[in-house]
């Protein structure tokens, strides 16, 4: 008797509320893919995404990054960058995806051909950055392997040393401060073992004037947070504020940026999972 009443109730519910059936998604989705917005390039939104989630729920071979011309689960106007790659690889990966996408969209060529061409763009960038790093390093004078308090963490080092094989990638200049990706492992081994993630010239005497160093081993997801934190800390120290206070205030700045990034990611709709996940030939439809 109870089963009969339940069946009748269900029929009545469906008759008067057909939206219960039709409101359910007709496609599979993957949530919590987006992590950090990285602005836009060439009219495309760039996102740091959760590569592990994508490999588990969407596409096991997703590596480094992707674009909507190659992967049909990526919105057409977006570039995705895997959060697992390092800060050192970010610019190369972004350039690769933009170039690859533009070839497939603009000329309708195959993914394989576009991918190979993008790899050559990467290589030219890598060689140019290597040249710029070496050129910059030879122009520098000797530096002190100490921090703002004059602490030398490797006692056997001379009071002044030459920087060698430290610089890797020139990122940009912000507020008159040059941003460099550096070999963090070499810094810790040869100059200052406690160097972590990033640093600026007012906190470390071995960093040349008006420079900020970013450890090449941090994730691309941390890059902009590290830059923002160092710029804020350096700005405050330049005003005469103590390192400890400047550091604490920079953390407040970074935490606010993290909160905003999280809010932006939460506003993104779940990613639809199409039946066909990728294409081997570009659309040729242009931008």
Plain-language structure description:
This protein has about 290 residues and is of the alpha+beta class. It folds into 2 domains: about 25-130, no CATH class; about 140-260, no CATH class. The protein has 8 helices and 10 strands. The strands form 3 sheets. Strands 2-3-5-4 form a 4-stranded mixed beta sheet, with helices on both faces. β6 and β7 (about 175-180) form a beta hairpin. The radius of gyration is 25 Å and the shape is globular.
User: What is the radius of gyration computed over CA atoms, rounded to a whole number of angstroms?
Assistant: 25 Å
Q: Residue share in helices?
A: 40-55%
Count of alpha/pi helices: 8
- Our count of domains comes out at 2
Biggest sheet, strands in spatial order? Answer: 2-3-5-4
Shape summary: globular
Measured by DSSP, the beta-strand proportion falls in 15-25%
- The overall strand count is 10
Uncertain spans? 1-26
- State the distance separating the first and last CA atoms: 63 Å
Largest β sheet strand count, sense and barrel closure: 4 strands, mixed
Secondary structure topology:
Blueprint: H1 2-16, H2 19-22, E1 28-30, E2 34-41, E3 44-49, H3 51-57, E4 65-67, E5 78-82, H4 87-107, H5 111-138, E6 167-174, E7 177-182, H6 184-190, E8 198-200, E9 211-215, H7 220-238, H8 243-266, E10 271-273
Parallel strand pairs: 3-5, 7-9
Antiparallel strand pairs: 1-10, 2-3, 4-5, 6-7, 8-9
Helix pairs in contact: 4-5, 4-7, 7-8
């Amino acid at each position: 008797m109870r089963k009969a009443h339940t069946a009748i109730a269900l029929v009545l519910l469906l008759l008067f509320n057909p939206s219960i059936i039709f409101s359910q998604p007709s496609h599979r989705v993957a949530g919590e893919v987006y992590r950090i917005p990285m602005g836009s390039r060439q009219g495309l939104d760039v996102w740091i995404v959760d590569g592990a989630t994508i490999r588990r729920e969407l596409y096991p071979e997703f590596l480094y990054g992707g674009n909507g011309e190659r992967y049909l689960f990526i919105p057409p106007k977006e570039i995705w960058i895997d959060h697992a790659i390092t800060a050192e690889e970010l610019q190369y990966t972004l350039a690769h995806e933009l170039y690859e996408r533009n070839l497939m969209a603009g000329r309708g060529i195959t993914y394989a051909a576009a991918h190979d061409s993008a790899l050559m763009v990467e290589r030219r960038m890598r060689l140019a950055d290597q040249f710029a790093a070496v050129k910059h390093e030879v122009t520098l004078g000797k530096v002190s392997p100490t921090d703002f308090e004059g602490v030398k963490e490797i006692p056997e080092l001379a009071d002044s040393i030459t920087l060698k094989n430290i610089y890797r990638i020139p990122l940009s200049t912000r507020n008159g401060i040059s941003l460099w990706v550096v070999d963090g492992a070499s810094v810790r081994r040869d100059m200052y073992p406690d160097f972590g993630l990033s640093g600026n010239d007012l906190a470390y005497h071995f960093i040349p004037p008006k420079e900020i160093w970013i450890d090449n081993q941090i994730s691309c997801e941390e890059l902009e947070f590290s830059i923002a934190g160092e710029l804020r800390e350096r700005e405050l120290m330049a005003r005469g504020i103590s390192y400890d206070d400047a550091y604490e205030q920079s953390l407040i700045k970074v935490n606010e940026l993290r909160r905003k990034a999280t809010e932006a990611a939460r506003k993104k709709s779940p990613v639809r999972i199409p039946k066909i996940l990728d294409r081997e030939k570009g659309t040729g439809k242009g931008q």
